[in-house]
From TrEMBL:
Lineage, uppermost ranks: Bacteria, Pseudomonadati, Pseudomonadota, Betaproteobacteria, Neisseriales
Any Gene Ontology CC annotation: ribosome
Keyword line: Ribonucleoprotein, Ribosomal protein, RNA-binding, rRNA-binding
Assigned protein family: Belongs to the universal ribosomal protein uL4 family.
SUPFAM superfamilies tied to this protein: Ribosomal protein L4
Transmembrane portions of the chain: none
Name by which UniProt lists this protein: Large ribosomal subunit protein uL4
Matching Gene3D superfamilies: 3.40.1370.10
Described function: Forms part of the polypeptide exit tunnel.
Pfam families on file: Ribosomal_L4
InterPro entries for the chain: Ribosomal_uL4, Ribosomal_uL4-like, Ribosomal_uL4_dom_sf
Organism listed in the record: Iodobacter arcticus
Length: 206
């Protein structure tokens, strides 16, 4: 599979060959959905807590007598039917939302996403990607010259200047190949991979 290559000015260069196993895979919507959903689920901390009817502050006194008032029977103000009452099925703070995705499925999901990015012309390769200074303004001008606004940049190694220059840009994320996740790959309009990172990607997932 030939991958599009651009230079520092955003101009197209000679294409580079990529692994068919990684960049020419058929799209599998169900697999991508499962991988992305599992990633979001595994990121949840599960620390939310709600009070049941035994935890809320309430009186045990019967609000009114059983018969003769014309109102429905009531025993305690902690009833889930009442305002301020406890939840019927409260969430516990140790709830586990994790979903298991085996290694083979995860790799196939990453390859499927990368292949679709290539088909949509959202993935490009560059020779290298560096920042001369840790200045956000200069880095933003560099991205504008390459006609990139919402972009995921994947480099072999994340140097300090590149990290400092990019961290304050809301629509820019810089990662190493081992840190790439399915959500980041689909979230940004463009994915830029350096040649060295491309080789590392193929070693990891191909």
């Amino acid at each position: 599979m030939d991958l599009k290559v651009i230079n520092a000015a955003g101009e197209a260069q000679a294409a580079v060959a990529g692994s068919d196993a990684l960049f020419a895979r058929e799209f599998n919507e169900a697999l991508v959905h499962q991988v992305v959903t599992a990633y979001f689920a595994n990121a949840r901390s599960g620390n939310r807590a709600q009070k049941g009817r035994d935890n809320v502050s309430h009186s045990t006194k019967k609000p009114w007598k059983q018969k003769g008032t014309g109102r429905a029977r009531a025993g305690m103000s902690s009833s889930p039917l009442w305002r301020g009452g406890g939840r019927a099925f409260p969430n516990s703070p140790d709830e586990n939302f994790s979903q298991k995705v085996n290694r083979k499925m995860f790799r196939a999901g990453i390859a499927t996403i990368l292949s679709q990015l290539v088909r949509e012309e959202r993935l490009v390769v560059v020779e290298s990607f560096t920042a001369e200074t840790p200045k956000t303004k200069a880095f933003a001008l560099q991205l504008a010259a390459m006609q990139l606004d919402s972009v995921l940049i994947i480099t072999k190694e994340l140097d300090e200047n590149l990290y400092l220059a990019s961290r304050n840009l809301a629509h820019v994320l810089v990662l190493e190949p081992s840190q790439a996740d399915p959500v980041s790959l689909v979230r940004y309009k463009k994915v830029v991979i350096t040649r060295e990172a491309l080789q590392a990607f193929e070693e990891l997932y191909a």
